[in-house]
Specification:
This protein is of the alpha/beta class. Helix content is 34%, strand content 21%. The chain binds iron/sulfur cluster.
Length: 433
C-alpha cells in the first residue's frame, strides 16, 4: 500500500512541477513514506533522517524533508521534536493536502504537522491523472481497520475502516488498463471487508466489485490483499470458482494455530474457521494456493500453542508465508503484557521458517514441468531474458528475442530457483494481449 501511496503522492505533486528522481542528492524535496508494521520502525526512520539532514545541510538547507505514512501518524510531534530540520509530517490520510502543506511550510518558514483523519476521503481529492504503474498495478480500494488485533497498530495509524465508492475504483482501474496494466492487485488493510457504495446506490461487496472489474476489456488478472478470515464470505469464496480473472492464489493471514493465542490476539476467528475456509476454497477451486502471515511469541504463547501453529502449517501446506517474532508496538494492548524471552521466540521462529521454506520449495518444485499461462512484465535481469508472473505470482524468466510485456503466453516451467522460476515459451500466439 505504501508503494501505491508513494505513486499517488507523486501524482499530487506533478502539477507543481515535481518529478521523481532516483537519489536524494540534490533533490528539492525528499519524502520518506514510512511503515510502522515492523520492529524498530521509528529508530530506522530517525537514523535515515540523520543521513538526510547531512544532505540538507550540504545543499544549503534548500531541501525540504517530509515524513509521511504510519510512523508520521504514530509519532507526529515527536518527529518534529527529535528532528526539527524536518519540514512536513503528514499522516497517511492527509497526503492529498501535500501541495497546500508545502506552500504553508514555505510561507511560514516553519515545520507543518498534519495527522488528521479528515471526514472527506482523500481519494476524492487525488488527481485522476496518474503515472503508469506498468503491467501489474496496485489499486487501494479500502483503508483502515476496526478489528483491533492486540498486536497491530493499523487501527491507530490508518484509522477506521473505510471503503472507496465502486465507481471511483472502476474508473481508476480503467485508466490503469489504458496505461498498460493487465493485472490489478486490489489493496486494503482488510480488503475483503470491502463494502463500498455502488453506482446503483446499494452497497457492493468485494465479490460484486470483482465481477464488475472482470468485465473491463484487457484487464486479465485480479488479485486482492490482505484478507481477514472473518470476512471470507461464501459469496467471495464462490468468486474464486466463477470469476475467470481472479487468480487462484490467496493471501489469508492466520497468525497462529492456537485458539487460546488467537483469542489473546483478538483475531475473532478460530483455527478451525481457517481450516474450513481453506477446505471450501480447495473444493471450489482445486488449483488454488495459499500464503499467510504468522506471529511467533505473542505474550502468553506456550510451547503447546506454538506446536498447534506448526500442526496447522503442516496440515495446510503453503506456497509462501511471512513469519515474524512478536514485537511490542507501543500503545497496543499486547505490549503491556509479560513478554516471551527472545531466545524462545527465536527458536520457535527458526523452526517455523524452516518448515515454511521447505513448503515453499516443495510448491515451486511441484510446478516444474507444468505448462502455465505467464503474464509478461518486461525485461528480465539477464541479457535476452524476459520476466513475467505465473498465476501464483511466482517471478519467472524466459529467454526470448522480442519484448512480450503485457502479453500472456503459455510457458513450460523448467527450473525452480529459491525465489524465481525459469521456463520456455510454448506457443507464440498470445492468450491475451
Ligand atoms: S485485521 Fe489486520 S489490520 Fe486489522 S487490526 Fe488485525 S492485523 Fe491489524
Amino acid at each position: 500500500m505504501n508503494v501505491y501511496d508513494s505513486a499517488r503522492m507523486a501524482d499530487v505533486l506533478a502539477p507543481l512541477g515535481y518529478v521523481t528522481v532516483d537519489t536524494p542528492d540534490g533533490a528539492d524535496m525528499v519524502i520518506m513514506n514510512t511503515c510502522h508494521i515492523r520492529e524498530r520502525a521509528e529508530e530506522k526512520v530517525f537514523s535515515a533522517l540523520g543521513r538526510l539532514r547531512d544532505l540538507k545541510v550540504a545543499g544549503g538547507n534548500r531541501m525540504m524533508i517530509a515524513v509521511t505514512g504510519c510512523v508520521a501518524q504514530a509519532e507526529g510531534e515527536v518527529i518534529l521534536e527529535r528532528a526539527p530540520y524536518v519540514d512536513l509530517v503528514v499522516g497517511p490520510q492527509a497526503y492529498h493536502r501535500l501541495p497546500e502543506l508545502i506552500a504553508r511550510a514555505h510561507r511560514t518558514q516553519k515545520s507543518v504537522l498534519d495527522t488528521d483523519f479528515p471526514a472527506d476521503q482523500k481519494f476524492d481529492f487525488l488527481p485522476a491523472a496518474a503515472a503508469p504503474q506498468g503491467v501489474i498495478a496496485n489499486l487501494t480500494i479500502q483503508e483502515g481497520c476496526d478489528k483491533f488485533c492486540s498486536f497491530c497498530v493499523v487501527p491507530y495509524t490508518r484509522g477506521a475502516e473505510t471503503s472507496r465508492p465502486a465507481a471511483s475504483i472502476l474508473a481508476e482501474a480503467r485508466r490503469m488498463v489504458l496505461s498498460g496494466a493487465r493485472e490489478i492487485a486490489l489493496l486494503g488493510q482488510n480488503v475483503n471487508a470491502y463494502h463500498g457504495e455502488g453506482p446503483d446506490g446499494g452497497t457492493w461487496t468485494l465479490a460484486r466489485l470483482l465481477r464488475e472489474l472482470e468485465k473491463i476489456p484487457n484487464l486479465h488478472r485480479l488479485r486482492y490483499t490482505t484478507s481477514h478470515p472473518g470476512d471470507m464470505t461464501e459469496e467471495l469464496m464462490v468468486a474464486h470458482r466463477d470469476n475467470p480473472a481472479l487468480m487462484p492464489f490467496l493471501h489469508l493471514p492466520v497468525q497462529s494455530g492456537s485458539d487460546k493465542i488467537l483469542a489473546a490476539m483478538n483475531r475473532k476467528h478460530k483455527a478451525d474457521d481457517f481450516r474450513r475456509i481453506i477446505a471450501r476454497l480447495r473444493d471450489l477451486r482445486p488449483d488454488i494456493a495459499f500464503t499467510s502471515d504468522f506471529i511467533v511469541g505473542q505474550p502468553g504463547e506456550t510451547e503447546q500453542d506454538f506446536q498447534a501453529t506448526m500442526a496447522l502449517v503442516r496440515e495446510t501446506g503453503f506456497a509462501l508465508a511471512y513469519s515474524f517474532n512478536y514485537s511490542p508496538r507501543p500503545g497496543t494492548p499486547a505490549a503491556a503484557l509479560p513478554q516471551i524471552p527472545d531466545d524462545v521466540k527465536n527458536a520457535r521462529l527458526y523452526e517455523l521458517q524452516a518448515e515454511l521454506r521447505r513448503q515453499q520449495d516443495e510448491f515451486n518444485l511441484s510446478t516444474v514441468g507444468l505448462t502455465t499461462p505467464v503474464l509478461f512484465t518486461g525485461a528480465g535481469r539477464k541479457p535476452g531474458q524476459i520476466a513475467g508472473r505465473t498465476i501464483y505470482a511466482q517471478p519467472i524468466n524466459i529467454q526470448h528475442p522480442t519484448p512480450l510485456a503485457g502479453e500472456i503466453h503459455h510457458v513450460k516451467i523448467t527450473h525452480a530457483n529459491p525465489n524465481s522460476l525459469l521456463g520456455i515459451l510454448q506457443k507464440q500466439e498470445s492468450l491475451a494481449a
